Give the backbone structure.
Amino acid sequence: MTRGIRIALAILATAVAIGEAQAQTWPTKPLRAFIPFAAGSATDLVPRAVFEPLATELGQPIVVENRGGAGGTIAGTAVVRADPDGHTMLATGSNLTIAPWIVPNMPYDTVKDLASVLMIGQNANVLIVPPARGWKTAQDLVAAAKARPGSINYSSAGVGTATHLSAEKFRLSAGIEAVHIPYKSIVMR
């Protein structure tokens, strides 16, 4: 168990202890956790690693529901519309900060309708290219993209995700044209 997960569990256990000290019983039923990306993504794996021991500590299961799409707003909407009884949570990533700027007719206000509790992890993005291209460095990739503008595609976990924004930052700083192809995850329901 990583140091970050231990810290998150300690914070949550403290919150539970404070709640018990105030003679409030929580949780009174299973917790629901909505994740705005498909199973297997970093935004899915990190919370699941935290939820398993947390459920044991709390004595209630945490039921995870993956609801991908619309820059994370489908899962966010499910949380905003849930009963405000403290048993529903959203485990999300940086997409929550960019969604209001890129999702037309945002169905909720991320600042007013959601309350941030804690950060449970972080991850890095990595630039990966097909070996068959023969590019050995980022400079090789940039040179190829400049030689044939618009001929290179790049993928991401979806519009407005950290992988999308990181790739755009790289593309803009390198001064290259490339076509964004958001990965369409399959969420089983």
